[in-house]
Write a structure and sequence with these properties.
Blueprint (H helix, E strand, L loop, with lengths): L1 H7 L25 E4 L2 E4 L3 H19 L3 H9 L15 H25 L4 E2 L12 E2 L12 H4 L16 H29 L2 H4 L6 H13 L14 H23 L3 H4 L3 H6 L2 H28 L2 H10 L7 H26 L1 H18 L28 H8 L6 E6 L5 E4 H6 L3 E8 L5 E10 H8 L7 E9 L5 E7 H4 L5 E6 L2 E2 L9 E3 L12 E7 L12 H5 L9
Parallel strand pairs: 5-14
Antiparallel strand pairs: 1-2, 1-4, 3-4, 5-6, 7-8, 8-11, 9-10, 9-14, 11-12, 11-13
The structure holds ligand MTE and molybdenum atom.
């Protein structure tokens, strides 16, 4: 069987350790974000003048309203803050540091998050991702006169906004997003602990219901442009307290939970809740939380600037309550650091993508891999099957494959070799005579779309029983008939543990019919605790190996080599 290896391995290509724009997907710009209300699409840019108009009207209304006697007495009864005993003082150093790390990481998280979204620039409330049913898109409608893959759909972003801006750079953007998330969660956890150890939580957690009427008073004051005194060294006003509470204790945890719920390993374990609050709902909420953060940052920064900049910066950046300039100086230095990192992130990523991949793997890859311990167990019903299942990837184009397809794959043989006791060559008819397993499962593409389909095929457990991998075999390599996007054979590596799951099958049927060539005929993998790119289509051969360092560029698969993905992708 070693001749098969000699046949296949040289057809893999070595990937570059830099992003070569000449070989990458050519740029394609989307459109300004559109929101669908009923059957009509609205350009969200209208929100800018509309928001401005509403703000001006709001000021006029607030100025009138606060003259009304009953409002006056309401505002006298609820002055805009509550005086309760407190057990903290000022702004300690740990708080200033946590605040800086938070803002520093949040910029990167948001930029990389928008980049991830640009890989499938549509958001849905339904789980099927059927074109036309999205509620938000920043791409044109899906063309209906040709095959339109998820990769075709991805859009370019300006390099200062996305990291790294170029189309379909989700592999790199995810390393940034997840690595910074991890550091952000660590920072946040330390922040939570310190808040409660030092009594500083009393600044940001409401302790009486009066926080609501008091917030109304503050809102009327600010909106009517008569700012209350800034007492933040001692206490925040009620509206500030409430908005910080929502940001720290609602928005941040919601972002974490809805982020995790988009990964197959976790979504597959949530049972009815996961079927109801599915990946697309989680993804939409995740996006809305990001919008909240952006709005919060804008309003927060504006308020810091217009309610006494020097004093505010002295509090939060220097931890002092005086009229000196130290807060401003530290803030200026901090902003220079943010600006340098902001400017460097995209060029660094394009010039050293392999380093970004390695750093990400080091920081967060092991943690993502841990969720593979959970075996996938989620199954759907016939009613859940998606009417449209996005296709993805580069179609096979070789004469050899076309000849096989022409004969309905009658001449197809699956070759299994490497570290196995019984190497095998199995025809499609033989595969179909083996035990058949049916499953209705959700497919999670790394780009963001998902879809439910019924798959049927041979359980990988059965194949393992036939070929008997040797004890040192740790990985299964799936070689495809098709090339990857930059040329060279598409392949992907799975840990052998994944091959033993009860839902891992070699599928030859999709939704009750033979799998179409578009979706991977004659045979494609289903391994339900991993993302879509690991479900190799058009399988030509499977090799069992001890290590994959010498295969391709050694990263564990075609997209791992060429697009800098991680090879364990349960999230
Ligand atoms: N050979 C091969 N298999 C592949 C791909 C590819 O490009 N080549 N794309 C992967 C990706 S990114 C996804 S999301 C799924 C898509 O499967 P589908 O076309 O059936 O939706 O196939 C995976 N398998
Ligand atoms: Mo994918």
């Amino acid at each position: 069987m070693s001749e098969i290896r000699e046949l296949l391995v040289p057809r893999l290509t070595h990937a570059d350790d830099r992003v070569r724009l000449s070989k990458w997907l050519p740029p394609q710009w989307g459109v300004a974000p559109r929101i669908r209300i009923g059957a009509r699409w609205f350009n969200t840019l209208w929100l800018l003048p509309l928001g401005f108009a509403f703000l001006i009207i709001g000021v006029a209304v607030a100025q009138e309203v606060r003259q009304i006697p009953s409002v006056k007495s309401f505002m006298a009864r609820y002055p805009g803050y509550t005086v309760l005993p407190v057990h903290y003082s000022g702004f300690p150093l740990w708080l200033c540091c946590a605040h800086f790390f938070n803002l520093f990481l949040l910029f990167l998280i948001i930029r990389a998050g928008i980049q991830i979204l640009a890989d499938h620039p549509r958001l849905y409330w339904n789980k099927h991702c059927t074109p036309g049913t999205e509620w938000l898109r920043f791409q044109h409608p899906v063309p209906s006169d040709r095959i339109w893959t998820a990769k075709d759909d991805s859009v370019t972003l300006p390099g200062w906004l996305g990291i790294p801006g170029i189309r379909h750079s989700i592999g790199l953007a995810r390393w940034w997003h997840f690595s910074c998330d991890f550091l952000w969660v660590l920072n946040g956890a330390a922040f939570y602990v310190m808040l409660f150890l030092t009594g500083q939580w009393e600044r940001v957690v409401p302790r009486t219901w009066a926080v609501f009427p008091n917030s109304l008073t503050v809102a009327i004051r600010y909106l009517s442009l008569q700012f209350p005194a800034n007492d933040s060294w001692v206490r925040y006003d009620s509206l500030q307290l409430l908005s910080y509470f929502v940001t720290i204790f609602v928005a941040a945890p919601l972002a974490i939970v809805t982020g995790l719920m988009q990964g197959p390993a976790i979504a597959n374990r949530l049972g009815w809740f996961g079927r109801f609050f599915h990946r697309q709902a989680a993804r939409s909420v995740h996006f809305l939380v990001m919008c909240y953060f952006v709005l919060f940052i804008c309003v927060h920064v504006m308020m810091v600037f217009i309610t006494g900049l020097r004093g505010n910066l002295n509090h939060m950046f220097a931890g002092v309550d005086d009229s000196g300039n130290e807060g401003f100086i530290i803030f200026a230095v901090a902003m220079v650091i943010v600006a340098i990192v902001w400017a460097a992130a995209t060029p660094l990523t394009l010039n050293h993508p392999r380093a970004v991949q390695k750093a990400g793997r080091f920081l967060i890859g092991w943690l993502k891999g841990l969720s593979e311990w959970w075996d996938p167990n989620n199954q759907f019903t016939e009613r859940d099957i998606s009417p449209h299942f996005w296709p993805n990837g580069t179609m096979p184009a070789s004469e050899e494959f076309n000849a096989l397809a022409h004969n309905n794959f009658a001449g197809y043989v699956l070759r299994i070799y490497g570290l196995v006791a019984n190497p095998a060559s199995i025809s499609l008819a033989e595969l179909k005579a083996m035990p058949k397993q049916e499953q209705i499962t959700e497919h999670f593409c790394i780009q963001g779309w998902s879809g439910v389909a019924k798959w049927a095929g041979v359980p990988m457990r059965h194949i393992l029983g036939l070929v008997k991998p040797q004890p040192q075999a740790r990985y299964a390599v799936f070689y495809s008939f098709a090339e990857g996007a930059e040329g060279g054979r598409y392949y992907d590596v799975h840990r052998i543990e994944n091959m033993r799951h009860h839902l891992t099958i070699l599928a030859y049927e999709m939704n009750g019919k033979p799998v179409s060539v578009l979706h991977g005929a004659p045979l494609r993998l289903r391994c339900e605790n991993e993302l879509g790119f690991k479900q190799v289509k058009w399988i030509e051969a499977i090799e069992f190996v001890e290590d994959f360092a010498s295969i391709g560029s050694g990263q564990g698969g075609y997209n791992e080599d060429h697009e800098f993905y991680g090879y364990r992708m349960p999230i």
